[in-house]
Write a structure and sequence with these properties.
This protein is of the alpha/beta class and 490 residues long. The protein has ten helices and 23 strands. Keywords: Glycoprotein, Leucine-rich repeat, Repeat, Signal.
């Protein structure tokens, strides 16, 4: 074995030792005893030199002589079954890295009694089961990495004594089932990564042991069923990844226990529908920061998707708005009426085409969250009528819309100029009458024009123009300016 020693920049003492294993060594080899002469060492690393010889035990003899050690890294070894108290009494150890060591199991108290340990790396091993008591008395541990193992079973309470843990990495394993007790005691975890496992169902309150959880990654599992209470007790959850699963239907009020989500990825599933009752508990759904990905699903064109046409007018997040615009659905009935709408964007359809009846209960959004240009009367002005639909011709080249989905031209004017300036068809008609009146004045006898001029001069006007004050529709504004100008300079 060859060891390289590095000294401190300020003191002539060895602080870092990196050893390369070049042949098979017994646990009591003299090279391990040489550590006794280096009490100032704070970092030790053991790794293989080539593939022929690898360390097959934890060098406890060497570690016993390094009371100041703070970081220990062992890699490219063949440790197999990690015995109890393999790293006992390393009271200053803060980092323990055991990646890529062919570890097959952790005995009871295999990693225990490390009062200052903050980061534990156990990735790229061959662990199949995590037992209760394997990790014990690690009061300061905040980061635990178990990715790329072969984990199938996590015993209930396996993490119970890791109360300070903040990040738990379990990606690329073979975990098939989790229970309400799987994550018991993890009261400070903010991030859980279960990417690429074999989960098929999320049980009720399965993550309730982590009330501070903020980010949850469930991508690339085999999830086909989610209990309505699966996310119960997660008030801090803001990011949820569930893409690339086998979800077909989601239960109503699924997010009631996680109302503060701002990013939800449900893309690349097999969802047939997504009802308003499923998403209505998302309190941030109107926020500028909210985003939900729905692409790559198999939605059926029916009334259960009607809420999308309404929400696209309400959301303040441009990315989420674009996402909603591109949600497509398929008609189950291959009739002539729907044959030309195969793979239709939901926002291009109307309530009638989606099969909504008069009794259909349309969701009412909290009017405190509506845009300031939307009338505060439920969502009446944002609801498309049966003959109103989103026209893709109103999108510019970047996919931005130039009118709101489901809005008539009258509502578009109302949204642009406020309720006080646009009052619908009655004021438009009134404005047209005013134009006709002005045009008639141009044909009146000269004495009428003179009389009109004298009346305005008497009121303090000095221009000689016929000036009128009236309500008008913005669409007629340029025409009125032309007529008034002509009256002034004729």
């Amino acid at each position: 074995m060859y060891c390289r020693c590095d000294s401190s920049a300020t003191k002539d003492e060895v602080t870092d030792v990196t050893c390369y294993v070049g042949r098979k060594l017994p646990s009591d080899h003299i090279v391990f005893q040489s550590f006794e002469r280096q009490p100032s060492v704070v970092f030790v690393a053991f790794t293989a030199f080539g593939n022929e010889y690898k360390l097959d035990f934890v060098p406890t003899t060497a570690l016993r002589y390094t009371p100041q050690i703070e970081r220990l890294k062992i890699s490219q070894a063949e440790l197999g079954d990690l015995k109890p108290r393999s790293f006992h009494n390393l009271t200053r150890l803060a980092l323990l890295s055991l990646d890529s060591n062919e570890i097959t199991s952790l005995d009871t108290e295999a990693i225990a009694d490390l009062p200052r340990l903050k980061k534990l790396e156990l990735g790229d091993n061959r662990l199949r089961r995590l037992r209760v008591g394997s990790l014990k008395n690690l009061p300061l541990l905040t980061h635990l990495f178990l990715e790329r193992n072969q984990l199938e079973v996590i015993d209930d309470g396996a993490f119970e004594e890791l109360g300070a843990l903040k990040e738990l990495e379990l990606s690329d394993n073979s975990i098939e089932k989790l229970t309400e007790q799987s994550f018991r005691g993890l009261s400070h975890v903010t991030r859980l990564d279960l990417f690429r496992n074999k989960l098929t169902r999320l049980e009720a309150r399965v993550f309730s042991g982590m009330p501070q959880l903020a980010e949850l990654d469930l991508k690339y599992n085999a999830l086909s069923e989610v209990d309505a209470l699966a996310f119960e007790g997660l008030p801090q959850l803001t990011v949820l990844y569930m893409s690339y699963n086998r979800l077909r239907v989601l239960p109503a009020h699924m997010f009631r226990g996680a109302p503060n989500l701002v990013s939800v990825d449900l893309s690349q599933n097999q969802l047939l529908t997504l009802t308003w009752r499923t998403v209505q508990d998302l309190a941030k759904i109107h926020a500028e920061s909210f985003d939900m990905s729905l692409t790559g699903n198999k939605f059926s064109c029916d009334c259960r998707l009607a809420w999308i046409m309404q929400l696209v007018n309400i959301t303040r997040n441009a990315k989420f708005r674009r996402e909603l615009r591109h949600v497509k659905c398929e008609f189950d009935d291959p009739t002539a009426a729907s044959a030309n709408m195969t793979g239709s964007k939901v926002v291009r359809l109307n309530f009638k085409q989606l099969g909504c009846t008069e009794e259909h209960e349309r969701p009412l959004f909290d009017d405190r969250l509506l845009p300031t240009d939307t009338p505060r009367s439920g969502l009446s002005s944002a609801r498309p009528h049966d003959d109103e639909y989103y026209d893709v011709s109103d999108e510019d080249d970047d996919g931005h819309d130039t009118r709101k989905v489901g809005y008539t031209e009258e509502n578009s004017l109302r949204a642009q100029h406020g309720n006080g300036q646009a009052r619908g068809k009655e004021e438009t008609s009134s404005a047209r009458n005013e134009v006709e009146a002005i045009l008639s004045q141009q044909k009146a006898p000269e004495k009428d024009a003179t009389g009109s001029s004298n009346r305005h001069k008497a009121n303090g006007a000095s221009s000689g123009c016929t000036l009128r004050t009236f309500a008008f529709a913005p669409a007629l504004f340029p025409l009125l300016l032309f007529v008034t100008s002509h009256s002034c300079w004729r």
